[in-house]
What we know:
The chain is α/β, with parallel strands linked by helices. The protein has helices at 18-30, 41-51, 67-75, 94-103, 115-186, 193-224, 235-246, 248-254, 271-288, 319-322, 343-353; strands at residues 10-14, 34-38, 55-59, 85-89, 107-110, 231-232, 257-259, 268-269, 294-302, 305-311, 357-362, 368-374.
Amino acid sequence: MKTNTPPKATLLLVDDIPANVSVLFDFLIEEGFRVLVSRDGKQAIQTANTILPNLILLDVMMPGIDGFEVCQQLKSQEETQDIPIIFMTALTDVVDKVRGFRLGAADYITKPIQQEEVLARIMTHLRLCNLQKELQESVFELQVQKSELEKRNQELDAFSRTVAHDLKNPLTGIIGLTDSVASSCSAIDGINPKVLERVHVVQQAGQKMLTIIEELLLLAGVSKQRDIPLEPLDMKNIVEQIIYNRLSYMIENVQAKILFPETWPVAVGYAPWIEEVWANYISNGIKYGGKPPILQFGAQVEESGVRFWLKDNGMGISSESQKRLFTPFTRLHEEHAEGHGLGLSIVQQIVEKLNGKVGVESELDTGSLFYFILPTS
């Protein structure tokens, strides 16, 4: 019964002794191989370059060009360097074996040749060679797929940014016009309150849409940017700019109480991104804090960097919900319609891009503490 060899595997048998060749040749033919024979090193190199066999059985001690030199020449050529070479030798010196392996030999068979051993070694190296080729093909296919995916991602990124910008410009105009209409309606005596209420609804809807677009643009920018200019952060100034310039209207509407730490330790980061992190944390604290919200800022130096946090007095978050908080499109509290669930996922991407980490500590009915850690250098 013939061994299950690769279909029509071609072997090159190189030996200058006819008796050795004859016995091994007949055995390998019976096992289903195609066998070529070379009687010296020069002929072996020519045959290997012409036929490109699947494996070479190479005698070491031959007149003229010996097996070591044949191996060296074949391994130096791109066309033949991947062909596995098994040395056949009576040499038992470890130095000779090491020399052969350094030249690129796959294995050694010691004379006198044992046919079953030869077959086992041939089959092993043919399988390894086939697996290597399959692996190389798979790697090439993955590289092609990766390149195609990167191209598609670039096209999608460019398209989404274009659409977002194209939506943002007219939407900004609509919001401005709606604000003007609201001001005019408020100045008109006797106007139907429902009209003014509907104008306010349009205002709020437009502002939410604008926030979504701005966060999508920010998310795309965070994902795309590679070289980030890190610098020491004036955290006190960053937080105050957000509270007094960006979120003052929200704070005034709910009469939120703000508590600042006595000192702000210095960490490094990218100020425009950290401003967005705080903006998300603060706006969530205002929305989901108590009535009125009490927001307490804090910071402390730890072994891993500087830990900044914001604690609120809200209803708290269950352990199960905390696991999903930083997942895109997950809201803090499902019963609240506000928000679209992008904010905290953007926070996580920003902080991780700055070599930091984010997290939350919360229990039901005890409020929540959202934090992020940034490096000090």
